[in-house]
Design a protein that fits this description.
Layout: E1 6-10, H1 20-25, E2 30-32, E3 37-39, H2 46-54, E4 60-64
Antiparallel strand pairs: 1-4, 2-3
């Protein structure tokens, strides 16, 4: 369930482009850009939370809007 005052963000300086969030955990929230993941849907879903937990470099976070 989305918190209306929260959004997903990716720190592209940390992202190593492994694709876990894009291809495995939350393809409805993330896509692969030029060399890093990008947020395509800011909604904080359960799948997005799995992506946050599974990101090997901690590049994904939730921020207040």
């Amino acid at each position: 369930m989305e918190e209306k005052n929260e959004k997903l963000v990716i720190d592209t300086t940390k992202c190593i482009g492994c694709g876990f969030c894009c291809y495995n955990a939350a393809p409805n929230n993330f896509s692969f850009g030029d060399s890093t993941a990008v947020v395509t849907n800011e909604e904080v879903t359960e799948e997005a939370k799995v992506a946050i937990e599974g990101c090997p470099v901690g590049a994904i976070s939730i921020e207040k809007k």
